[in-house]
Design a protein that fits this description.
The complex is a heterodimer of chains A (497) and B (316).
Chain A: H1 4-7, E1 18-20, H2 23-35, E2 38-46, E3 49-56, E4 62-68, E5 73-75, H3 84-95, E6 98-100, E7 116-117, E8 124-125, E9 143-147, E10 159-165, E11 168-175, H4 183-187, H5 192-199, H6 207-222, H7 228-256, H8 260-281, E12 290-291, E13 294-295, H9 301-327, H10 329-335, H11 343-349, H12 353-357, H13 365-368, H14 389-413, E14 429-435, E15 440-447, E16 453-459, H15 466-473, H16 481-488, H17 492-496
Parallel strand pairs in A: 1-4, 5-6
Antiparallel strand pairs in A: 2-3, 3-4, 7-8, 9-10, 10-11, 12-13, 14-15, 15-16
Chain B: H1 2-33, H2 43-53, H3 64-83, H4 99-119, H5 123-154, H6 159-167, H7 175-191, H8 210-213, H9 219-244, H10 256-282, H11 292-312
Helix pairs in contact in B: 1-3, 1-9, 1-10, 2-9, 3-4, 3-9, 4-5, 5-7, 5-11, 7-9, 7-11, 9-10
The chains are: A alpha+beta (497), B mainly alpha (316).
Chain lengths: 497, 316
Amino acid sequence: MATLADIIADGIEGQWPRAVVSPDVWESAGRQIAEGTWTLVAHWGEPGMVHVAIRERGTGTTGILSLNAAGGRFPSLGRHALPARRLERTIRDLFGLEPEGAPDLRPWLDHGRWGLSHPLGVHAAAAEPEPYRFLPVEGEGLHQIPVGPVHAGIIEPGHFRFTASGETIVRLEERLGYVHKGIEGLLTGAPLDRAAKLAGRASGDSTVAYATAFAQAVEAACGVEVPSRAVYLRAVMLELERIANHVGDIGAICNDAAFGLMHAHCAVLRERVLRAAALAFGHRLMMDRVVPGGVAVDIDPKAKDHISKLLAQIARQFPALIVIYEDTASLQDRTVRTGMVRHDLVARFGAGGFVGRASGRTFDTRKVLRCPPYDMLDFEVTVLERGDVDARIRIRIREIEQSLSLLGQLIAQLPYGDIRADVAPRAAEGAALVEGFRGDIFAWLRMNEDGSVARCHLRDPSCFQWPLLEAAIDGNIVADFPLCNKSFNCSYAGHDL
Amino acid sequence: MTGILALQAIQEVMAVALAPLLTGLVRRTKARLQCRLGPSAFQPYRDLFRLLRKEVVLAPNASWLFSAAPVVVCATTWVAATLVPSFTLDVRLAPAADLIAIVGLLASARFVLALAGLDIGTSFGGIGASREMMIASVAEPAMLMLIFSLALVAGTTRLTDIAAFVQSPILGLRISLMLAFVGFVMIAVAENGRIPVDNPATHLELTMVHEAMVLEYSGRHLALIELAGSIRLLLYVSLISAVFLPWGLAPEGAGVARCGAAVLFYLAKLFVGANLLALFEVTIAKMRVFRVPQFIGAALMLGLLAALLRLVSESL
């Protein structure tokens, strides 16, 4: 079969070159993804066209294949490739493009409450909403437990349909789309500064990562050279965000096993990190601090010392928490061998972040793409094999340690100079892949000549992690679902966009 | 006669009046141990008053059973609690203060609540009821086994007599009593839905046991159920302190000063009990649902061992 490099050789240049391909090549792409030689990075549509971003395993070549779908139809990738299925349902809901031969044509994001169909394609009158058909499960003594979309705690909305035999889960089916905000629709035609703000609000806990992905895509499109100080400051923010989220999540996972002690201590640490972020960049979550061309604010001179002190403090306190986690037998009893994810599934879905790395998938954008400033820094990417809740926690623990070290290096090596370059708009395309705390966030956009966004697509790492949660929970007991779910901590907002 | 009646009345009022404070105390100590400020120990009273003022939201398919259950649950638990001598052995209900009667009362409260959980027809009510019954089916035999071992040692199942027996100086160190004590504590943890068996503070519907059964309750119904839960915790702390640590209990015909001292003693025991429970809960995670029978099975074995030891030798 043709390699990706052969196909996209005459495409639009860049790190993510794009080539318009024939239906035959498109179909062979579906098979390559199913066979595992290619990894699906993203799959999205626009009126009259569908795109798929690919990374070739082994060579690491990246590229985008496009297929003309002017007839309103395109051959389904999901027929062969599992990870494409929900993305195709999304394309069908938003653009009205029919994936031909797709095994699953149920609506995904469209719950019949938009007042119209295909909001991003050719508008049509809203179809008569029909009841959502969950996949049938047959067997003796099975019962269904519907959970959500409104939950007893303050979490995002999503519906989970469990089919259980007694306490054992036979199948979990997710239904998402409750927090669809129409971000891609809002981005279309938005001026650059507004678009950057919107991108930073796709998923609030990864706002830095999203804003960075969007900014890098703009910079790739417009050929902007980002000042090195800005590159370092972005990395500082990314690592702060990673530490805050990982620390918070480790506590939250333990809390789901009713171990409140870890939760309380981790909450204190997370709060310290957020306050340091507020001191350094003027916003606890560092929202709108990364902009196309660089960063919006420079680091507060006082904050450099503060962050160094914070690093020392966390380095002192965090190991004690790890000891608590490792030495509490009752906690380990809950996390070890719970919610195991198989290696082949992780590879097939191309799941990034701690979900992938806990199941043997060595993929970290920072290491693999060697994008600056990470190519100048010393850090390791930990990979574990067991794929259970415990492994996901341990990956996060290692990542926090690496991020602490990275922050130290970044602060020490922070270059002087400008923090923002001018973006000279031009009609062009760009894409970027950025490692958020959940995994790789993909952003692609096409700019208009006047500097507005013609079309932009953001892909959350959760898109390839949600399906794995369904697989991870199989055969576990109902009461262990919250623990597994929290160990994934997929984004609803980022997935539903 | 009026004195005895007054003592009985005081015990009954105390059970209701102190129960929310005990729950509040456990929560507060837990919060402090987790480096949190936590609400005041009197917060449960405020919660109860808030719930009493709130409207009751009933599911359209709820039957009379659903509305009646909170009253029955609260009443039976209250009666059971008043049977336990808290600070004096001189109680009017002493002839009825039988351990088996207490177990029976608590079991009927549980039965009614499980029915109410099923009545509403939601999946969580069903899950909660089935888990609660699974726990009950092992916890109740274990409790009875422990009571029998106590009865073998003390020669009676009447609480006041057991307390008087344990108080008496003729009793030396009894291994069977110690085993029964540990077993009783384990059962108390399970029956009150505390960590590691159940988490009373969780918001995760899928992991709940007791909370899942009462998920549909609101307003004064919920207030009664919460109150019943607090009373049950008080009952177990009082029971364990009356049977295994009966020192400080006022004997029959004691004067007012002696009774006052006994009340202070009792309050001190509750305080210590609440703090120990909080400390235990902070240091342990919740176990998997299917581990619970093993946990309670250990209590059953302790009861069995206590009874066997007692049969082997009079002095153990």
